[in-house]
Structure formats: structure tokens, C-alpha cells
Write a structure and sequence with these properties.
The protein is an alpha+beta fold. It is built from 4 helices and 7 strands, in the order E-H-H-E-H-E-E-H-E-E-E. It has helices spanning about 15, 20-35, 50-55, 65-75; strands at about 1-10, 45-50, 60, 65, 80-90, 95-100, 115-120. The strands form 3 sheets. A 3-stranded antiparallel beta sheet has the order 1-5-2. The longest helix has 19 residues, at about 20-35.
């Protein structure tokens, strides 16, 4: 079981509610998750931290996330940046609980957007 949480900052709530910004956050999340899935499987629980520099170099549909961010900035006219991410994986007998505070309506189950979030690994 695997989960990824990313931090992408913008300056206003108006932009945070914009579908273009939300799409950027989804692309960052999916690209980060894909990169972690490509790594050799770890034994037991593992946590991978991702810094902004490495995230900006990840590819989504042939374009770096840094370039996608720049295009979104140009489109929305507000500064934003990819700050960091964490990917968490646990063995199959364990689970990952996800909490998102102030979730954005209309997000998909595979990528929930919100103001704050937490990932917790546990075993029943």
C-alpha cells in the first residue's frame, strides 16, 4: 500500500479553488507517485522525502513539473511553487489512513485536495 502527499503553494484562496491550479497539484501528486513506484520495493515501512528541486525535474506527459508550474503561473497570473512531498509505503498487511482538512469539493478518490493533510500507517 502506498500514498503520496504534496505541498504546492499559491498566494490566494481564489487561485487554490481554480481548476487549473488543482490540476497542477494532481499532476505533481501523480508524477511523484509514479517516480516512487519505479524505485525498488522496500522491505517493511518506508518514507521517501522529495525536495522542491527534485520534484520540479519530474516529468508529466513529457513536460517537467517546473515547466508545468511556470505555464500555470502564466495562465493564472499568480506566483505558486512546488514545495515538497512525502511518499509512504507499508507492507500489504498494514494500511495507510489519510486525513485531509478542508477538502476541495469535486476531487477524485485517487487524489484528494485540501488545505492540510496527514498520512498514518497502521496495522489492525
Amino acid at each position: 500500500t502506498m500514498a503520496t502527499m504534496v505541498e504546492v503553494n499559491c498566494e490566494t484562496d481564489f487561485v487554490a479553488r481554480n481548476p487549473k491550479f488543482q490540476q497542477l497539484v494532481t499532476h505533481v501528486t501523480m508524477a511523484t507517485l509514479s517516480q516512487v513506484k519505479a524505485l525498488p520495493a522496500a522491505v517493511g515501512c518506508s518514507k521517501v522525502l522529495h525536495a522542491a528541486d527534485s520534484l520540479n525535474q519530474l516529468q508529466h506527459d513529457g513536460t517537467t513539473l517546473g515547466d508545468l508550474t511556470a505555464l500555470t503561473i502564466g495562465s493564472l497570473g499568480e506566483n505558486m511553487q512546488i514545495r515538497r512531498a512525502v511518499s509512504f509505503s507499508v507492507p500489504s498487511q498494514n494500511h495507510i489512513g489519510i486525513y485531509v482538512h478542508a477538502p476541495v469539493t469535486g476531487t477524485t478518490a485517487s487524489c484528494t485536495l485540501g488545505k492540510y493533510g496527514a498520512l498514518v500507517g497502521f496495522r489492525r
